[in-house]
Amino acid sequence: MEGLMHEEGYAFAFNPKACETCAGNCCIGESGYIWVTDSEMQAMAKHLEIDVTAFINAYLMKIRYRFTLKELPYEGGFGCVFFDREKRMCRIYPVRPSQCRSFPFWDYFKENIDEVVTECPGIIRLS
Prior knowledge:
The chain has helices spanning 38-48, 52-59, 98-101, 108-111, 113-119; strands at residues 12-14, 28-29, 35-36, 60-63, 66-69, 71-74, 77-80, 83-84, 89-90, 123-125. It is of the alpha+beta class. The protein has one domain (12-125). The strands form four sheets. A three-stranded antiparallel β-sheet has the order 2-7-6, with no helix packed on it. A three-stranded antiparallel β-sheet has the order 3-5-4. It has a two-stranded antiparallel ribbon with strand order 1-10. Strand 8 and strand 9 form a beta hairpin. It is globular and about 45 Å long.
């Protein structure tokens, strides 16, 4: 298939066109951390047209020495603070953190393919 993304070491490919019809499954579910860097904070704050301090106070939690996006209760689980519940998509997609950009190619999914297949309609098994 044309347009599929592949990463070495993964037994699956990803069709990014599936995001157009997905209900934001990668933004909701179990609780977890989405770590953000200083430069990502600045980009997101600029996108939202607020200063970085206001952005940190409104949207981030500090865990030890790092910052993560806040989560909100959602349908028996959690949703990213930037998950638009009405449109079922990311409100900051163009400036989303690198951790979000790298989905589904997370080390965890190398050994947990069934989980990512269930979560993401864009996953295509290679083996």
